[in-house]
Write a structure and sequence with these properties.
The chain contains ten helices and three strands. The chain is mainly α. β2 and β3 form a beta hairpin. The longest helix is centred in the first third of the chain and has 29 residues. It is globular and about 55 Å long. It starts with a helix and ends in a 5-residue tail after the last helix.
């Protein structure tokens, strides 16, 4: 309770030196809880809409009618505007002024640009992460790969869950760069990765054993601290994924 009171007191400009360990009244609790509840609703709506865009439930160029979204996601129109503006800043939604919002379109050209940007960020981050790698980092990488491999085996057997595939694929690549020393770099990579992965979902693009082998090679490179080899493997991995997604013929 002490930590919670300290946090809320700082938010309202009260010095920690004058805090008294007394329970807040019901009226005070209502005031303190209100912003947190509103933030929780907004964040939950943001995550759900974002997930539905990445996994294609909300299709590219689909108009996002506020009234329909309100009924579907149980979020107020004003909160929806904030959520869609946030997604617009990430490039997942287009804001069209008086015409409202729509899901961002897709194209082979955009996929190639995202792939190039992902390579630029991830190769640099891997080089830094490998150079500073330690036992804790190795443990994260090995654990993330273990979960990813189990998920990929399910994908190969046509029994896989796309959301788990995306989650563990992302966690593995984030684990590889997690010792790069830059939170901003990791956040930038995570956003690009999500936008890139959206294409793989839309194209129903899973390449089977080849993907597993490339991830196994990346794991081996990490344990050997072989950044040069890892960058070569990653380049082939992403380039082949892009070619496969485009060849599937499901992108405009």
């Amino acid at each position: 309770m002490r930590n919670s009171i300290s946090y809320d007191a700082r938010r309202f400009g009260v010095s920690r030196a004058v805090l008294v360990p007394t329970l807040p009244t019901a009226q005070e609790m209502e005031v303190l809880d209100r912003p947190q509840n509103e933030e929780t609703i907004s964040d939950d709506g943001y995550r759900r809409i974002r997930t539905d865009i990445i996994f294609g439930k909300l299709r590219p160029e689909q108009k996002l009618r506020l009234e329909a979204l309100r009924d579907t996601y149980g979020v107020s129109v004003s909160t929806l505007r904030e959520i869609l503006s946030r997604l617009s800043s990430e490039g997942l939604v287009l804001a069209e002024g008086r015409r409202g919002f729509e899901v961002a379109p897709v194209s082979p050209h955009d996929l190639k640009e995202l792939a190039d940007l992902r390579l630029l960020l991830e190769c640099h981050a891997m080089e830094q992460s490998f150079a500073h790698g330690d036992m804790e980092w190795e443990g994260r990488v090995v654990s993330a790969h273990h979960k990813l491999l189990a998920t990929e085996r399910q994908m190969s057997s046509k029994k896989g869950n796309q959301q788990l595939w995306k989650r563990y694929d992302g966690e593995f690549h984030q684990a590889l760069i997690s010792n790069c020393g830059s939170r901003a770099l990791m956040d930038a990579h995570a956003l690009v990765f999500d936008k890139y992965f959206r294409y793989l979902i839309l194209a129903l693009s899973y390449r089977g054993d080849t993907v597993q082998q490339q991830h196994q090679q990346l794991l081996a490179c990490a344990l050997k601290r072989d950044a040069a080899r890892a960058k070569s493997v990653l380049t082939a991995h992403i380039t082949e994924c892009v070619d496969h997604a485009i060849a599937a013929g499901r992108l405009p």
